[in-house]
Description:
Helix content is 39%, strand content 12%. The chain has helices at residues 18-35, 43-56, 59-67, 74-89, and strands at residues 107-115, 128-136.
Amino acid sequence: MVGYSEEPVQKEKVKLESKNACKVASICQDLIYASGRGNVTTHKSLALGMAVRQITGSVGLLRILHGLVHCASADTVYKHDSALTVSIINGENDSFLPRNIINDVFTCLVWDKNDFREETSSGKGTTHVTNGIAIQRNHGTKDLQ
């Protein structure tokens, strides 16, 4: 159907390269989500909604994408985000640090709040972004003097 194999296959599965398997999985998730009229949340629909919310913070964009059956609803995205936060606060998730951060090693944290100084008539709807990095010394190399 997607043209990755022209050989007829009767009882076997078609062998796909990794990059093609990801594309087929993406198409299949779109079909499942669309056929369920947005009531069946797939990994892709939720991940896209979470990414859009994180990057833009726009509920309007989430509603447009949900209306076009591309991502989970804004309510679902916010409920999932809240559930992740609660699970971290309650200790249900043992590790909320990135994989490359080493425990019990001195860590320097650097945070920056970017305020784009946008002006709106109500003062709402402005962009505020906070970025951060964690810096740890690499123990495999000698310090520079």
